[in-house]
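Section 3.1: Structural characterization of target chains.
Under the original work plan, the team committed to producing a structural model for every single-chain target entering the pipeline before any wet-lab resources were allocated. The record below documents one such target. The sequence was received from the expression subgroup and is listed exactly as submitted; it comprises 201 residues.
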Amino acid sequence: MYTEMAFKSEISNLLPPEHNTTVHKEACWRVYNNASRPDNRRLIAGLLDDLDIALEKLGRTSIHQTGGVLRSSAWSIILNDSWILGGIHGHVNFELISLPSEDSVINKSYSSTDSVDRIFRVTGRELIGLTSFGYAQVCGPVEKISADIRPAHLPNCNALIQCVNPGLADSATFTAYQDVILRKASLAVANGWQVIDGLMI
């Protein structure tokens, strides 16, 4: 886990000017900590429409709350990364409520004039973070909270994304996360969304 000083120092180098404020860095810090200890010991990742379904059941992760679905009025990509890294450092289980696919991973409005890391949707970025830092999709008897939320959606939630390498999870940093996003983005330009490892598609 980060110390507060190390956390805020590192994100200061990554936040764009409009979010590089004391208030926003504090919001990122709180979300990071809350994601490391969610109420149900799991976090739910996926597309916004699907997450709206999960929100009522599991509550929100925010600067004040420790539910399973990230919702914050202070959202930024670094705040989202803070949520993922908090879960990773806490070795929290993640459930992907949206089917991994080109539509859920790749930003369809991406153009060659954009920064290469913009090729991924937020869900794609989350999956890259998880599968790069000690997580993999696992088979076996798992609780499927999504089945309680929307049974028809269950085929898209066929397994849990779980920490299988705690040492690698503990080593995750914002800088390493950004580096792997850029590497995967360069590959995705040529090879499409299936550059993400650790998923059973």
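Strands lie at 42-45, 60-61, 69-70, 93-96, 135-138, 160-163.
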